[in-house]
Design goal:
The two termini are about 40 Å apart. The strands form five sheets. A six-stranded antiparallel β-sheet has the order 2-3-4-8-6-7, with helices on both faces. Strands 14-15-13-16-17 form a five-stranded parallel β-sheet, with helices on both faces. A two-stranded antiparallel sheet has the order 1-5. It is an alpha/beta fold. Helix content is about 45%, strand content about 15%. The protein is built from 18 helices and 17 strands. A hairpin with a 2-residue loop joins strand 3 and strand 4. The chain folds into three domains: about 110 residues; about 220 residues, Aminoglycoside phosphotransferase (APH), C-terminal lobe (Aminoglycoside 3'-phosphotransferase, Chain: A, domain 2); about 170 residues, 3-Layer(aba) Sandwich (Rossmann fold), CATH 3.40.50. The longest helix has 27 residues.
Length: about 525
């Protein structure tokens, strides 16, 4: 997957000159088109459209060296990206040379290039720009996680012979290619560090080989996006839209769905947004299904390592010293993340209980990002599980029948089974529920004992007045609890807390988090 060797194969100057002039478009834009060149394409922004032409380049991993290959991959790009962004990808235009030698769109003459026509959007609509501007909200992240999950669920599973980037062999190829690239960039990657990192990655691969291959057999290898970082997701009509997926090499896109997700999680982590990475993680797994989680640390780490080497290659091509310096810093941070993400971790089970309005979910969500391995703990919230068991969205209100004793027993049973699966997969778990019955608390403690994992239970102690005020201030929340429900809970009480520690949670959420983190010896 070398990013160091490029060969220009054909002269595209006539096509570039044509696309650079506003008068050649119908209707002509008010201003001359903006030209954006990347290592693999030329993009011209003209009016409300964007026109993308593949560069006549030949890399070891991406070959657009002939017109026929550019045609094939332009058609593939349209087909594959239309799955997630049908309103963004509009069609293919031909650039033709007419009898008088002039270039035209879709004329009767000889085709000299193929151009992908797309709907133009503002750069501020890109998620990476929104992250830089501090506008990437939890609500938007949850929408994006839903969109990624839906995209993966809708994609067709691949037979093993076509899943070139999946399974143990697919990951082995990436790990070894990374090492080769690190060795080719000794001024940026220290050989001792890269050797140690690669040894850890190989060890993880050896342990995961049966599971990686089993996931291919189980249908989790699909033609995914392949390049799912924040810059390749934008808002179109207010909806997160995945675009610019990889079409040119099946090793990069015919992969495990969790390896696809891992790039997005890695990007958030590297950008210093662990809370949003954890929120994405938990939203993606909103209905459970944690059997693939043992693979995620290797997937995350490998994605970060790939990013580290790409940033170096990109920096080498920059003439602006400030941009070059920034990209090299991104490379350094990315490689540090790769090392951290693959470190062994001991899972822990944490129980959080309290009456409605005590701040359980606020605490659990804030705490989850701090637990290992990245992107943090599995947050099991009873309110969300109850909604999903009834086929509802998290913020959709349920009828009273959904809170019967039998329904609640099903919720707690589901939480316990999911917690066991996640813990056995090596991930920490936070169980967030009222947990006012000693039997429920004891069941959580017993689960930790049966799996021999560390356990800590916290009961959030808050006055009725404060809980009532918090309930009144809720909006767009998964909890259906009212002040009346909370008062009934408080009247019933919580019984003997046993090994659960009572925490004064009546102050700010930051203060409560600080108390709990101190009890867990977390920084």
């Amino acid at each position: 997957m070398s990013h160091r060797t490029m060969e220009e194969t054909e002269d595209q100057s006539a096509a570039l000159e044509f696309l650079a002039l506003a008068k050649n478009y119908d209707p002509p834009p008010d201003e001359e088109p903006v030209h954006i060149a990347t290592h693999g394409s030329h993009v011209f922004l003209a009016g409300d459209r964007a026109y993308k032409m593949k560069r006549a380049v030949s890399f070891p991993y991406m070959d657009f060296g002939t017109l026929e290959r550019r045609k094939t991959f332009t058609e593939a790009e349209l087909t594959l990206n239309s799955r997630a962004a049908p309103d963004l990808y509009l069609g293919i235009r031909r650039l033709t040379r007419e009898k008088d030698g002039a270039i035209a769109f879709d004329g009767p003459g000889e085709t000299i290039e193929y151009v992908l026509e797309m709907r133009r959007f503002e750069q501020d609509a890109l998620l990476d720009r929104m992250a830089e501007d501090g506008k990437l909200t939890p609500e938007l992240i949850e929408q994006t996680a839903d969109r990624i999950r839906a995209f993966h669920n809708a994609a067709e599973s691949l037979p093993a012979d076509d899943a070139l980037g999946a399974g143990a062999e697919g990951m082995r190829w990436v790990i070894e290619e990374n090492l080769e690239e690190f060795a080719a960039q000794p001024e940026h990657f220290h050989s001792v560090e890269t050797a140690a990192y690669t040894a850890h990655a190989r060890e993880a691969l050896a342990q995961l080989t049966p599971l990686l291959d089993a996931r291919v057999e189980a249908g989790h290898a699909k033609h995914c996006h392949g390049d799912l970082h924040l810059r390749n997701i934008c808002l179109i009509d207010g909806e997160p839209t995945l675009f610019d997926g990889l079409e040119f090499n099946p090793r990069f896109a015919c992969i495990d769905t969790l390896y696809d997700l891992a790039y997005f999680l890695s990007d958030l982590d590297i950008r210093g947004l662990p809370c949003l990475a954890n929120l994405t993680f938990n939203r993606y797994f909103i209905d459970g299904g944690y059997d693939g989680l043992p693979c995620l640390p290797l997937f995350l780490s490998t994605r970060s390592a790939v990013r580290a080497k790409i940033m170096v290659s990109g920096a080498e091509a920059q003439e602006d010293p400030s941009i070059r310096k920034a990209m090299l810093e991104q490379s350094r941070v990315s490689f540090q993340a790769a090392q951290r993400q693959i470190e062994p971790a001991t899972p822990v089970l944490i129980g959080v209980g309290g009456f409605s309005g005590s701040g359980k979910s606020t605490l659990a969500q804030a705490l989850a990002q701090s637990l290992s391995p990245p992107p943090g703990a599995v947050h099991l919230r009873s309110d969300v599980i109850r909604k999903r068991l009834h086929g509802c969205a998290p913020t959709e209100r349920l009828p009273a029948a959904a809170y019967s004793s039998d329904a609640s027993a099903k919720v707690y049973s589901t939480m316990l089974s999911r917690a066991a699966e996640a813990l056995q997969a090596g991930y920490s778990v936070i169980m967030d529920a009222v947990n006012d019955r000693p039997a429920d608390r004891n069941a959580i403690t017993a689960l930790a004992q049966s799996l021999s994992v560390p356990f800590k239970g916290f009961w959030l102690d808050v006055t009725e007045e404060v809980m009532a005020r918090r309930i009144a201030g809720r909006s767009n929340d998964a909890s259906d609890a009212t002040e009346t429900v909370m008062l009934a809970q408080a009247q019933h009480g919580h019984g003997a807390l046993g090994d659960w520690e009572k925490i004064n949670a009546g102050g700010t959420s930051a203060a409560t988090l600080a108390i709990v983190k101190s009890r867990l010896d977390l920084p």
